[in-house]
Design a protein that fits this description.
CATH architecture: 2-Layer Sandwich
Protein name: SRPBCC domain-containing protein
CATH class: Alpha Beta
Radius of gyration: 15 Å
Domain Activator of Hsp90 ATPase homologue 1/2-like C-terminal: 22-153
CATH topology: Alpha-D-Glucose-1,6-Bisphosphate, Chain A, domain 4
Family: Belongs to the AHA1 family.
Mean pLDDT: 95
Pfam families: AHSA1
Strand content: 35-45%
Shape: globular
Order of helices and strands: EEHEEEEEEHH
Organism: Nonomuraea insulae
Structural class: alpha+beta
Strand order of the largest sheet: 1-2-8-7-6-5-4-3
Low-confidence stretches: none
Helix content: 10-25%
């Protein structure tokens, strides 16, 4: 399975996650935007995911909930600003426990041979807020999500 690459440059507000998938962009786009499929890949494997809302249209809202083994819930939400199937979406991304730390995420899917190059760039309000995500092991959760996404895409 391909590795997930992270670009985390000192002094910058963005975090970039890159992954290759063995499926065309339309399949990957469907999986990353289908509320029925999101719980099968989103978040680290030690948490379950529930979709509270998923309106993948410009101005549409989304809200996902991660639940740990003790039943504690962690809420993530935002608004879609642009949706261009099957190649791109732009949305805000917020951990509801830190509402002042809203990031702008752009996911771009590009055909690459018979597969897809996935690039997610998250721009955070400050270098400090981006670095807090890195210190909280955000890349680990992203890597696990991408591994689970790759397995799901392969099954389809």
């Amino acid at each position: 399975m391909a590795d997930t690459e992270f670009v985390i440059e000192p002094g910058r507000q963005d975090l970039i996650m890159i992954r290759a998938f063995d499926a065309p962009p339309d399949v990957v786009f469907r999986v990353i935007t289908d509320p029925e499929l999101i719980p099968r890949w989103w978040g680290p494997s030690f948490l379950s995911t529930r979709v509270d809302r998923m309106e993948v249209t410009p101005g549409g809202r989304w809200r996902l909930v991660n639940v740990d083994a003790q039943g504690r819930e962690y809420f993530f939400s935002g608004v879609y600003h642009a949706v261009v199937p099957p190649s791109r979406y732009v949305r805000t991304w917020e951990f509801e426990g830190a509402p002042e730390e809203v990031a702008l995420e752009t996911v771009t899917l590009t055909a690459d041979g018979g597969g897809t190059r996935y690039v997610a760039q998250s721009v955070h309000p400050s270098v400090e807020s981006r670095d807090a995500i890195v210190r909280a092991d955000g890349p680990r959760g992203g890597r696990e999500s991408m591994d689970r996404l790759a397995a799901l895409v392969a099954d389809l």
